[in-house]
Amino acid sequence: MLYAILIHGSESAEATWEPDVEEDMLERHADLRDDLQAQGRLGAVLRFMPDAATTVRRAGDLHPLVTERPFANTAEQLMGLYVVECESVEEATHVAHRMAFETGVFEIRPISWYDPGGIPARIPQV
Q1: How far apart are CA 99 and CA 107, in angstroms?
Q2: Strand, coil or helix: 22
Q3: Which domains does the chain have, with CATH numbers?
């Protein structure tokens, strides 16, 4: 079964990380992606830009809805996601555990439909 692992965390806490903490996090994610890729179980992986770059629109609106951040009533922001193939939710939970960080909250959701599309991997220039 395919699962989306949605990564929530505190942007304000992340902004205070020392460079070695961020490097460790990125290295652990790279190792996880390498492992999942080697097993043929890795789908899309995304790291979102901060909430300040987000625009919210409601269905039928022609103009952006101007809101105060955060957009949901939560201390955590959606920071990224992984799509992984796992035999069970327990296995997907184990994958999420490998991503753990101090303010991390991981939402594991089964996927009912998935189209990988054709956009090649890249790091967009801001």
Answers
A1: 12
A2: helix
A3: 2-110 (3.30.70.1060)
- Residue 51: burial class (beta carbons within 10 Å; 0-12, 13-18, 19+): middle
Backbone φ/ψ region at 98: left (φ over 0), alpha (ψ -120 to 50), beta: alpha
Q: Express each pLDDT in 61-87 by its tens digit.
A: 776 556 555 555 557 889 999 999 999
pTM tops 0.85, yes or no:
no
Task: Name residue 56's beta-bridge partners.
Answer: 65
The two beta strands, 42-47 and 105-110, are: unpaired
CA 85 – CA 87 distance, rounded (Å): 7
Q: What's the token pair of residue 77? A: 């922001």
106 three-state secondary structure? strand
Residues 9-65: tens digit of each pLDDT: 988 888 888 999 989 999 999 999 999 999 999 999 999 988 888 877 777 777 655
